[in-house]
Design goal:
single chain, Rossmann fold, alpha/beta, 260 residues
Amino acid sequence: MFLKGKTALVTGSTSGIGLAYAKALAAEGAQVMINGFGDAAAIETERAALEATSGKALYSDADMTKPDAIHAMVQRCHDELGGPDIVIANAGVQHVEPIDTFPIAKWDQIIAINLSSAFHLMQAAIPLMKANKWGRIISTASAHSKVASPFKSAYVTAKHGIDGLTKTAALETATFGITVNCISPGYVWTPLVENQIPDTMKARNLTREQVINDVLLDGQPTKQFVTAEQVAALAVFLCRDEAAQITGSNYSIDGGWTAE
């Protein structure tokens, strides 16, 4: 349990990839703070399970569209758990629609949650990490941080932005024992992916099966979904001392999608 004594804060972690991150880090001894929305009873069940694994776990319902709430969440984590030594910017939403009819409110929401919240998380956490001379910052990017798809203008823009933010933050923190990286999964079977299927069916006039096979998995040469646990395992490695010289990197885990 090489993360014993460390604290991790993971946004968007009440389900999907974020929850897999929290479970994997807790399994290595880290205390964790999870964040997100969902059924209160289900969230409490997950929080209690994490606490049983690592000793202590907290939940924050901080809204990722609100900078003050993000800063307050980091401060609460620091006050009640310590650190945070590891922060993972994972919160994300999606909307699928052509640019000429893309709702402005949806654009603003996606940029705020998928990109700006990562900046605010880093801004709040980096001073605490500098004081400890150790930190791991990881963001969930996407294959869409490297390539584009139609009808996802806001999402693709935000994920390209995560790549640039990662590189900039890595350069700024390179002499403080802090590493900054992002992970770019292909399609992972999560609520976010499942929920975009109806919009894609409408935008492309396809059936559900056609969306899964001809859109979602079309670009992944393995023809398999990435698992949340595979993404989390990569994040755990990036927290190891052996990864201390890995910073400013964007790691693809996409079944070969961006190799083509």
